[in-house]
């Protein structure tokens, strides 16, 4: 008689190789930035979940505590004992002078500052406002895909996944068309830098640009979010300070398109490596919203939550993380935890075993989630309609995943039809 519980049965099913042996992964020298780890982090994350709920890891930015189990990740994402404030004088903080020019935003704040900052921009990303944008988003997607149809090949990242969200967020916030593509270089340097100097150079160029852009919006306001932020006043006569204006602009542009680039790229990769699911989705495009949620879970555009710092000792599954430690919650691991998901490595459009954490959890839940979902749904619907014979132009193992511990996305995605 099988006396194992759901946890045991799921793990036994999941970790056995076709040959019957248990898959083993050496995590004694874990390098979160290694090319091998970025190419396929999941076997290592599987083993980490098995071994311990939290463990310290050395990185180029210093030591952090890596948390991998879904229940723990979800708890810590909403735990007020983990601070996001730029004033925390530990770990990744305080921000160096360059970052301080662009670091005073809601992702680096705790309540009540976080509450205040989020309230001032939340109205731009409501479900209602995003629904009104859908026809325009579809027009942008069709304009991008139409020239691809007769060409027979494309890099889906460069030709669709990148220009779509950068166009949408730039129009929303008020970045002139001629300046939009510079953000790709700047954000790429910050998300997957070749060196610390490369990352700082990208941040400096983007921050300098935003300082100048906000000054222009102050002189010549327009019908866009940046102009609204410059002029915004709530019922308490509360305005954003100049550093907060620059920082909020920085956050909205960086977060407003990077995750959507990865959603479209990662989701297309999953479809093209799962032909049965691809065929089903082509036959029934009404499944696209469910497919987008499964793409977000299985290949999360955000690998982990941005760093938090413990303000007091925190117990994580019996392991105590001391006060003053940097904590990194692995969303990629949490979204494949067999304690939550049956057969978690399978792409399943009918999955009914719990929501994912791709947009985070708690007060820092991604404010742009409705916009990212809409862009992803419209992009996949349009591609399936206009490029139904899409297929990879290279073997899957020839694709390169970008480095870094925050984002997960492909460098490029060559396709043909």
Automatic annotation (TrEMBL):
Keyword Nucleotidyltransferase listed: no
GO biological process, one term: antibiotic biosynthetic process
Record's keyword terms, sorted: Heme, Iron, Metal-binding, Monooxygenase, Oxidoreductase
Cross-referenced PROSITE patterns: CYTOCHROME_P450
Entries under PANTHER family matching the protein: CYTOCHROME P450 YJIB-RELATED (PTHR46696:SF1), P450, PUTATIVE (EUROFUNG)-RELATED (PTHR46696)
Spans annotated as Disordered: 1-24
Pfam families: p450
Protein name according to UniProt: Cytochrome P450 hydroxylase
GO molecular function, one term: heme binding
Annotated family: Belongs to the cytochrome P450 family.
